[in-house]
Give the backbone structure.
Amino acid sequence: MQLSNTRFKDRIYVTGFILVIISLTTFLLPFLIKGSINGFNYFIINFIITAFYFAILLITGRLRRGRDGLSPLLLFLVLFLISAYSLNRELNIFESSVSWLSVTLVLVCINYMAFSFYEYFPRFIKHLMCFVLGVGCCLFVYLAIYLVPLYLLSAVGFFLLGISLHSFVPLLFLLYSVRVLKRATTQDKRLKFSFYAGAVSVVVLLVVFITAWSNVTSSINKACHYATATNDNLPAWVSVAQTIPKNVLSERLLKTSLVYSVPDNHYDNFLWRIPSRNFEEQKKHDPLIMTASFFSGRLTLEENERIKVLESLYDSRHQAQERLWSGDNLLTEYVYTNVHIWPRFSLAYTEKTITVANLNNAEDRSSQEEAIFTFHLPEGGVVSALSLWINGKEEKGLLTTKEKAAKAYNTIVGIENRDPSVLHWQEGNTVSVRVFPVTSVKSRVFKIGITAPLQKKADHLAYDNIYFDGPSALRAYEDVSVSFDHKQETITAPAFLGSSDEQHFKSYGKYRPDWSINFLNEGLSPQGFNFNGKSYSVSPYLAERSTAVLNNIYLDINSSWTNNEFNDVYNLVKNKNVYVYSNTLIRLTASNKDQLFKQCASARFSLFPLFEIKGTTTALLISKSNATSPNLNDLGESVFLAKTKEHLCTPSRIKLFNMGSSLSPYLKTLLEYRVFDYEQGDLLLLEDLLAKSIFAVNKEDSNHVVIHNAALVIAESIGNVAAGAPDHLMRLFAYNHIMQLAGKKLLDSIPEDDTLIMEAKTASIVTPVSSLVVLETQKDYDRFNITESMDSLGNASLKSKGSVPEPHEWLLFITALCVLVYIGFKPALKITNTSNASN
């Protein structure tokens, strides 16, 4: 294809083309660099470029009839559109455009500019250009209609430097699109069909999307109404979460008004469509969703109920956390992961040092933002260290009660706007870290230390990287360092981890959240850790079983069960009393089992009502589940949770057999609260247990804790043992011991128990009753009565302490030191005495 040089000899056109490149570069600068220029200044630059080019067109008379003014005018409209979206960052008419809209706008603008060379393109390219022109016209029709409420205000404000005229950009594009189409089809009328095909394609796509959107809206509303009418125990949103299709369309529908803009019934709120509850995801504008919401109506679910569904289905708990300050402009810049593994004690300690930056270009107080991170811990794992860098110096956290830590953080962040960080325990093996303030002037750095057991897999142990949710880490770089306390013979590590020997692994590159290392299980060491007259040691967990007459079997069925699994289990237990739960407890028979399975298996997850289990001594709950379900706290003040709490007040434990490799968050939390006698295995193990009428009994007591996922027992005993274990062993024991002691009390509220607090402080660990906090000055700690415990392990570190000497051992050390000093100086004293005598 040969293009004429005529257009490029047109100085006014070339000037406009260059100005488009400059304006677009200016528009993209805030995305590419972290600068100190105020965002409004970028708009001023874009606006001046646009006004300058328009002035050139007027002065040169290029817009007069017969002067070939359409081509430069299209360049002017592109400049005007860039300026409009630059202004939109400061005056929020549209939320951030979704990706497909941004790409479409760019392609449409390129297409308008390409019409300057239209006559030199081959015929099939001309058809394509007319097709894109039809698509662009539909898009600008939408934008023009969207901005109708602003037209009168914009016209009145015309004399204010003309800024308000940006509202008319889509309308101008529409008007001049007619001229472009007329000129393009002068010689070939059939090109109009391509234009119409583009416009019709958009309409067809819109109709299909509206239909699908309406169907999902209708199904959610129907499920909500039915659940409200038929289920008195659970909130209606639970039924919605169990039944709606889990796809992109459902997720976006649930996020309407939280993330995605929807039509507003009140024009007085046109410029500021701010959701009533914060959801940590950038607000977005999607014309498809806006139009579909207009025609299909709104959801019955309230915003807080939709958030609960999102938390349960789409792992959105982090985004739904309450905030004191915004975190919209934050970015995770750098992660330093340092791991030390003790295979012979089946535990690891992980330190993650994270740098978080604020991309806001403002230098004033409004640039202060709050960084919130959620870390996902392995089963039985615990946070044992927190640090925040203040004025370039690492300040370690102090352990205190959860209430004191929350009060100190909320007071300082909410009122005084100074430097704190706080770390809280959360349900579902997670913790949350908050850091404030993160400003555009300087990045913030914090460090979290996590003590966790290794996962046992047959004859191997596995370390799984601890990942987090928080400010985007897509552009983050990471240093990874993994070391073992001794060389390993067999290690399976990811390719990106380079090894200098069988003991140390290192890498540097893009941040990777999901990786693991596997190595041979060498068995456990008999050595332990000694502290304050007590010792801590590990041993393998072997299920201890006793007679159990299991006459009543309860099947916890959901979508993770297969039909074959169900039939196999039913054949094993059909001679007993077998029940399933579907709005009510129903006994299974040969005639109803298939229908009931189909009904129960249609639910994405299940919340089996434990209060329906009668006679726990003869009952067995058989479950299989995935990682999807609400947490206990999500159920709030529901009748279901109230009945569950009441039922679990008794000391008896429910027998739970898990056929899957994991537990749902609902069951996992109950297991951590020591509600169950627990077995995990396949159908053969279940058959053996039922045939022998036996089941695992609780091996935990005041001196022993069990971590099922690691197949590990940690014991506490009086006196000392041969030292060699890291202090992390005591921390793991303390965390699981606190969960054991608090147990079912945690269902009701955080128990006020000084014994639990003291144990958490001694081990310096984060639990449901304790948190870590870093404050700016000692005066802040004094003001909130937060003190450092002198008789504790303190913050954990990679240089883990061995056994800590007892008080009498310190006395022996001091005495021995004095003796050595005396022996060392004795010859000198003899010489001095002899010299004095001779004198």
